[in-house]
Amino acid sequence: MRILNLFLAMVLCTGLAMAQNTEPYLVKDFSGQRINRLEVSTSGGSIKVNGGTSTPKVKVFIRSNSWNTKLSQKEIEERLENYILEVKVSGNTLICTAKPKKENFSWNNSNRLSIGFEIDSPGKVDTDLATSGGSITLSDLDGNLGFKTSGGSMDLNDLKGNIKGSTSGGSIKMNELSGDISLSTSGGSITAENSDGKIKLTTSGGSLTFNNLKGDIKGTTSGGSIRANNVNGDLNISTSGGSIKFTNIEGNLSGSTSGGGIEGNILAIRDHVSLSTSAGSIKVDLPFNEGMDLDLKGNRVYSDKLAKVSNTLKEGKVNGRVNGGGKSVKMRTSAGSIYVD
Fold first, then answer.
1. What is the pTM of this model?
2. 62-108: pLDDT as tens digits
3. Where are the domains of the chain?
4. Nearest-angstrom CA–CA distance, 324 and 167
5. How many angstroms separate the Cα of 95 from the Cα of each of 90, 162, 176, 217, 245?
C-alpha cells in the first residue's frame, strides 16, 4: 500500500509540473535600451523582477487558469485572441501588459489564462507593478518601488529606496531592505529581516516576525502574535489578537496587545519604554545599569530588584526611580501581574 501511495503521489506531482507550462511563451531582449522605469500589469499571473542585470529581458509565461490543464501552443494562441498582450519600451519605460479585451466579458474559469512576467532589469529603476492573481518577487532594485497584488504573496530581497507594496491575499517576506518602507497585507503574515530605515508593516490576518532591524519600525496586526529579535531604534508594535515577545531590544519600545501576554528583554533604553496588555501578564528584563523612572501597574508586581525602590509591589503598583531616574518605563496590565528582572 505504501508503494502504491508513493507511485500515485509521483504521478500527481509529475502531472502538475507538466500542467504549469514552465517554458516561456515569449522572450524579448532589449539589449542597448536604457530603462529607468518598469510599468507591469497583469490580471492573472505573477510578476518577478531581477535587478542588477546589464541586459534587459522579458519572459512571458502563459498557462491555463486551471492548474491541472496543460495548453498547447495553438490553444494558447487561440485564447490569447481574447487578451491584450503588450511588451515594449516607450521612452525609457519598459511596459508589460496582459489583460482581457473585454473587462466585463464572462467566460468559464477553465478558459482563462494566467499570464506572468519575469523581467531582468537594471538595478536603478522605478516600478509600478500590479497583478490581480499572482505573487510578486523582487530583488536587487533601487528606486521608487511601487507594487500591489490582490491574490498572492510577496518575496522581497535587497531593495533600496522608497518602497511601497500591498497584498490582499498573501504573506510578505522581506530581507535586506533599506529606505522608506511601507508594506501591508489583509490576509497573511509578515516576516522582516536584516533591514533598516523607516519601516511600517501592517497585517489584518497574520503574525509579525522581526529579526535584525534598525531604524524607526512600526508593526501592527489585528489577528496574530508579534515576535521581535535584535531590534535597534524606535520599535512601536501592537496587536489585537496575540502575544508579544521580544529579545535584545535597544532603543525606544512601545508595545500593546488586547489578547495576550508580553515577554522579553531590553538591552538599552534610549528615552522610553511603554508596554500594556488587557489580557495577560508582563515579564520583562530591564537594563538596571541605567537611570529609569518606573511607573508600573498590575494585579501584582514581582521583582527582587525593585524591593528597595517601592514597598507597594503586593498592591501592584510601583512609582520610583532607579539610579537617580531618567528614562521613562511604563507598564500596564488589566488582567495579570508584572514580573521585572
1. 0.90
2. 988 776 678 888 988 988 998 999 999 999 999 999 998 887 655 55
3. 23-158
4. 48
5. 7, 21, 27, 34, 44
